[in-house]
From TrEMBL:
Organism: Kitasatospora misakiensis
Modified residues (N6-(pyridoxal phosphate)lysine): K221
Binding site for pyridoxal 5'-phosphate: T97, S98, F125, P126, T127, D128, D195, H198, Y220, W251
UniProt name for this protein: Kynureninase
Pathway: Amino-acid degradation; L-kynurenine degradation; L-alanine and anthranilate from L-kynurenine: step 1/1; Cofactor biosynthesis; NAD(+) biosynthesis; quinolinate from L-kynurenine: step 2/3
Major enzyme class: hydrolase
Designated gene of the protein: kynU
Enzyme Commission number: 3.7.1.3
Keyword hit for Amino-acid biosynthesis: no
Length: 408
């Protein structure tokens, strides 16, 4: 078994170690929940303050032009594009993941008239399934069908208009084969929509090279944009020329929003997927976190993510009552480790009381996210030791650890 000293040696040789200085983390906390809410970048408060006090407070409405507020959704989109392997003009930052999925899924159905089935993963993050229900509910005859994501092929008939899948499963951390699945879906005449919420900033994502038609993703997980920070959407360039229409045809997607014309005429390009005024304070926080991402080498991030998850798995796999649910194969693993334990909820609460913050997903999964920019090998070693102690001592049985909050 690897020792703590050996982990310290790995930290000393870690090419990403200096990124820790870019984040503010409270002392005494080992943060393994960056897959749910990323940590605070050091520069974010200053950037948000400047937007509030200077751009808003002093410059007032002039900032729409002078501070580039109007351009901000595109500017941030161009900066996220390289993180997901998209061309700069294929991506825009706006709204939330759920709202963006509503927009691209409806656009996909419009691109496949005569087909009326949407396939989704029955175990997907439920908001994606709820949105698919909402969209198909508006189209007479349309339906959404839940399948096993590993085998959508059996259901790919001439009725399927679109398939919606998560690149990395939010519960198990399983990574799907984006290019392979996309090719099979498209060979059946359907369109492929990827949800990259759990892969952007966590694993390499190649939307354009994979041939993906559409994608949505959020920025408050591995991208550290802050609670409720705006999401993004991707539309393959081939769909932008003539361009499918999305249903939330608000003025920001209009060709000339400030002409205030009564009829809707969509913008050319990705801009037609915008709806409303951007939430500029949220976008300001995201802007600061992207400054950090621009300096991070993506291959180094992936290598460290695999090293940290390998390390954690090796340290906890033999603990009593624990089953490692996350795939062992590197090409099937995201940047989190899910452990099944019959009493997962109180065990996670007992860990949080010790300062090791992970989370729990019903019915029995403990989730631990590994964020290579601000986590060290030594912290992973310490977290595993805390888990072993919590299990061996039975301290999780204290009844205060079984009380449930609204958010788990
Ligand atoms: C986090 C997450 C979302 C979040 O949706 P919001 O609309 O931003 O609340 C959606 N889908 C997946 C797969 C997620 O992991």
């Amino acid at each position: 078994m690897i020792t703590r000293e050996e982990c310290a040696a790995l930290d000393a040789a870690d090419p990403l170690a200096a990124f820790r200085e870019d984040f503010t983390l409270p002392p005494g906390v080992i943060y393994l929940d960056g897959n749910s809410l990323g940590a605070l970048p050091v520069r974010t408060p200053e950037r948000v303050r400047a937007v509030v006090e200077e751009e808003w407070g002093r410059e007032l409405i002039r900032s729409w032009n002078d501070a580039g507020w109007f351009e901000q959704p595109y500017r941030l989109g161009r900066r996220i594009a390289p993180l997901v392997g998209a061309a700069p003009e294929e991506l825009v930052v706006c709204d939330t993941t759920s709202v963006n999925l509503f927009k691209v899924l409806t656009a996909a159905l419009r691109l496949r008239p005569g087909r009326s089935t949407v396939l989704g993963d029955g175990a997907a993050f439920p908001t994606d399934l709820y949105i698919a229900e909402g969209v198909t509910g508006m189209v007479p005859g349309a339906r959404s069908l839940l399948v096993d994501p590993a085998e959508p092929d059996a259901h790919l008939d001439g009725e399927v208009a679109a398939v919606v899948l998560s690149h990395v499963d939010y519960r198990t951390g399983e990574l799907l084969d984006m290019p392979g699945i996309t090719a099979r879906v498209q060979a059946a005449g359907a369109l492929m929509i990827w949800d990259v919420c759990h892969s952007v900033g966590a694993v390499p994502v190649e939307l354009t090279a994979s041939g993906a038609d559409f994608a949505v993703g959020c920025t408050y997980k591995y991208l550290n944009g802050g609670p409720g920070s705006p999401a993004f959407l991707y539309v393959a360039e081939r769909h932008l020329a003539a361009g499918p229409l999305q249903p939330l045809s608000g003025w920001f997607g209009h060709a000339r929003p400030f002409a205030f014309e009564p009829g809707y005429e969509p913008k050319a390009g990705i801009g037609r997927f915008l709806t409303s005024s951007p939430s500029l304070l949220g976008q300001a926080a995201l802007e600061a976190s992207l400054d950090v991402w621009e300096r991070a080498d993506r291959a180094a991030v992936r290598a460290k993510s695999l090293a940290l998850t390998d390390l954690f798995i090796s340290l906890v796999e033999d603990l009593d009552g624990i089953e490692v649910v996350t795939p062992r194969e590197h090409d099937r693993r995201g940047s989190q480790v899910a452990l099944r334990h019959a009493d997962g909820y109180p065990v996670v609460q007992a860990l949080i009381a010790r300062g090791v913050i992970g989370d729990f997903r019903a019915p029995d999964l403990m989730r631990f996210g590994f964020t290579p920019l601000y986590l060290s090998h030594t912290e992973v070693w310490d977290a595993a030791r805390h888990l072993a102690e919590v299990l061996e001592s039975g301290e999780w049985k204290d009844e205060r650890f079984s009380r449930r909050g609204e958010v788990t």
